Amino acid sequence: GHQDVWVRGYVDQVVIGCRGEIIACHPRCWEREDVVFDPVHYLPLIEQKINSLDQAAPLQGWDLPDEFATLRRLMEGRMAKHGRREYVQVLRLLESFDLADLHAAVKQAIQLGAIGFDAVKHLILCRVERRPPRLDLAIYPYLPRATVEKTSAKAYMRLLSNDAGEAA
To answer: Transposase for insertion sequence element IS21-like C-terminal domain: from which residue to which, for each copy (predicted)?
Structure first.
């Protein structure tokens, strides 16, 4: 709740802490009345209030690679509001990983068609640990299943005989 905090301004950053622990560290801005946001800092709150994702000022102007927008569109298309929340969870991986690694994992997830937070997290961990990914699609029940059966030549003959009957 209400606790005393300390603020220290340095040449390049402002550090905020409570007791002996640093709570936040932000780059210093020398422009008058300018606001500098760190989008990653606000993601936990946005995850709780998911409808604020498009209106959140800290995310405005955040220049992410195009694949992130593609991932969001695919996630929301498959899972609606839950997909939006999973997208924010993917962005929260930036709390622990570099943007370059996350970008590579997002691209790989899109290529594999494994659209989901768990898949992206698995892929980025495999990338960092330099091991091959092992995705189990059983944990994605909403993905469409495709079964391809062996086709016999008789089935084609039946199609040809139906076409011949309709043409006459």
So the answer is: 2-38
Order across the sheet with 13-18: list the strands.
6-9, 13-18, 21-27
- Whole-number Cα distances in Å, 116 to 142, 146, 153: 11, 19, 40
Q: Are residues 4 and 83 in the same domain?
A: no
- 30 phi and psi, to 5 degrees? -100, -5
Shared domain for 68 and 105, answered yes or no, is yes
Quickly count: other Cβ atoms within 10 Å of residue 145's Cβ.
6
Q: Are residues 103 and 54 in the same domain?
A: yes
Q: Are 53 and 46 in contact (CB under 8 A)?
A: yes
Q: How many secondary structure helices (H) and strands (E) does the chain include?
A: 5, 3
For residue 97, give the DSSP letter. S
* Tokens found for residue 115: 């659209």
Nearest to 111 by CA among 71, 144, 148, 77: 71
Q: What is the crossing angle of helices 117-129 and 99-112, to 10°? A: 120
Same structural domain for residues 9 and 71?
Answer: no
For 92-106, write each residue's pLDDT tens digit.
999 999 999 999 999
Q: Are 28 and 11 in contact (CB under 8 A)?
A: yes
> What does R_g of the chain's alpha carbons equal in angstroms?
25
